[in-house]
Amino acid sequence: MTKAEMVEKLAETWGGISNRQAADNLDSFVAFITKTVKKDKGLRIPNLGTFQLRSVKRRKARNPRTGEEITIPARNKVAFKPAKALTDSVQRAPRKTAAKKTAAKKAAPKKAARKKKSA
């Protein structure tokens, strides 16, 4: 789902407000999450999940093209852990791709390799 599609759905859900108001509300919500995670190192939203700021230590790696060893600097990253309610509701949702996967598995079997005749 794109941001524009999300804004349209939110506008409908929030009682028919304009798309501009829905976009402003969405932007404010994202800004609030960003500011809170930066300041408090985490944010827990019931039934959705927890955003948490995590520190990643400096590490060494190799450039795959040249083989040269490089140092990747330490940084902060945001981790999201979904709440149990969200995980459970997603697990109960019907899968749309299940039919495609089963059809792919029922492909024609491979032919057995021929044995070479010994002379």
What do these coordinates show?
- The chain has 119 residues and is an alpha+beta fold.
- It folds into 2 domains: 1-40; 41-89, Irregular (HU Protein, Chain A).
- The protein is 42% helix and 24% strand.
- It contains 4 helices and 5 strands.
- It has helices spanning 3-13, 19-40, 84-92, 98-105, and strands spanning 42-45, 49-56, 59-62, 69-72, 75-82.
- The strands form 2 sheets. A 3-stranded antiparallel β-sheet has the order 1-2-5.
- Helix 1 (3-13) packs across helix 2.
- It is extended, with a radius of gyration of 25 Å.
- The relative contact order is 0.09.
Short précis:
Helix content is 42%, strand content 24%. It is an alpha+beta fold.
Q: Can you identify the CATH class of the largest domain? A: Few Secondary Structures
Low-confidence stretches: none
Radius of gyration: 25 Å
Content-based structural category: alpha+beta
Counted up, domains total 2
Task: Walk across the major sheet and give the strand order.
Answer: 1-2-5
Write the layout of secondary structure elements.
Layout: H1 3-13, H2 19-40, E1 42-45, E2 49-56, E3 59-62, E4 69-72, E5 75-82, H3 84-92, H4 98-105
Antiparallel strand pairs: 1-2, 2-5, 3-4
Keywords summarizing the entry:
4 helices, alpha+beta, HU Protein, Chain A, three-stranded antiparallel β-sheet, two-stranded antiparallel ribbon, 119 residues
